[in-house]
Design goal:
Length: 124
């Protein structure tokens, strides 16, 4: 499992960003896709999540340092800045509908998958 790659969909292609084994369960990392920072997480069940790294409330690129958890059946990340909680599947803020600038309070979400080292079919 140490050679399995994590890929994030960027535009029309899948971009390899790091090895699955390099993601610590429960912790995030920031990766750069083009000119956008993406917060990539591996939860304790081994599922992968990729959301925007920019906190819409502070403007800081800090979501990758947030805390993973859940609200009911929803997997979430809490921003380390003002503690707003975001759904990892949709990017929607569960605490406030709008950011201070009046835009919807949500994070972009990217599809993410793993690819076996031998070039076999990707795993969802």
């Amino acid at each position: 499992m140490t050679d399995i790659l994590v890929e994030v969909r960027h535009g029309a292609r899948w971009v390899p960003v790091l090895r699955y084994a390099d993601l610590v369960p429960g912790r995030g990392v920031a990766v750069l896709l083009g000119d956008e920072q993406v917060a990539l997480f591996r939860d304790r069940a081994g599922r992968l999540h990729a959301v925007g790294n920019r906190d819409p409330f502070s403007g800081a690129q800090v979501i990758s340092r947030g805390l993973l958890g859940s609200r009911g059946d929803t997997r979430v990340v809490a921003s380390p800045m003002y503690k707003q909680v975001f759904d990892l599947s949709t990017g929607t803020c569960l605490d406030e509908p709008t950011a201070p600038d009046g835009t919807p309070a949500r994070l972009p979400v990217w599809p993410v998958r793993t690819t076996p080292p031998e070039g076999g079919p990707a795993c969802p």
